[in-house]
């Protein structure tokens, strides 16, 4: 017991735990919303939007994810320790904040890229190639990333259950049995499959039902509550429609 709670006590303390995790999430996203996404986009977003190369964008995605608190490393005030993760496992949540450590030595928390960065890199290069590597608008780039970037905060020990699928998730592949449902990646993970929560809505994630459309709806709600510029959010939402239609039931 890292904080006096065992994972099977999550249900007993669920309301308080989820409320605390939601406050942390919102604090991080308020900082995210205050960033000047369009006037001063970070270099990684500029590269994703304009680079005329077939090279990898892996590190660009990772650095951009860091800005949203989708990282285990760094301190809480610097959006570290998975503080921006919308989705969190029960075992992660029962871990006391003081016991959360994303450093390699004595690591206790892990940000799990539900859609692996290598998949995002491959799919984004296909988008850029299809347009002849023409520059993509910032709205379009942000929309694509926010639709497809799904991450989950894990207890570090839970990562072992992903052996064999760390770099795979066919949820973006037309014709795949899991098309459009990113969380089916965890269907074979006994410790996680029934224990992932959307801490913004306070609801358990249904692996078979949760879609990219549901994810983006959560992102929009979170941006609104965090005070993001409504005009910019609306522009991103318009662009996102170009990507969400393929996942519609």
Describe what this molecule looks like in 3D.
This protein is 39% helix and 7% strand. By secondary structure, the protein is α+β, with helices and mostly antiparallel strands. Helix 2 crosses helix 3 (58-67), helix 2 crosses helix 6 (138-148) and helix 6 (138-148) packs across helix 8. The chain has one domain (7-247). The mean pLDDT is 93. The relative contact order is 0.15. The radius of gyration is 17 Å and the shape is globular. It has helices spanning 14-34, 43-50, 58-67, 90-93, 117-130, 138-148, 212-225, 230-244, and strands spanning 87-89, 109-113, 151-155, 196-198, 203-204.
Topology, please?
Elements: H1 14-34, H2 43-50, H3 58-67, E1 87-89, H4 90-93, E2 109-113, H5 117-130, H6 138-148, E3 151-155, E4 196-198, E5 203-204, H7 212-225, H8 230-244
Parallel strand pairs: 1-3
Antiparallel strand pairs: 1-4, 2-3, 4-5
Classify the helix fraction into a percent range: 25-40%
Q: Could you tell me how far the N terminus lies from the C terminus, measured between alpha carbons in angstroms?
A: 42 Å
Largest sheet: 5 strands, mixed
> How many domains, in number, for the residues?
1
Order of helices and strands: HHHEHEHHEEEHH
Question: What is the number of strand segments?
Answer: 5
User: What overall geometry do the principal axes of the alpha carbons give?
Assistant: globular
What is the CA-based Rg, rounded? 17 Å
Residue share in β-strands: 5-15%
Query: Are there runs of 5+ residues with pLDDT below 50, and where?
Result: none
Strand order of the largest sheet: 2-3-1-4-5
Average pLDDT, to the nearest integer? 93
Structural class: alpha+beta
| Helical segment count | 8
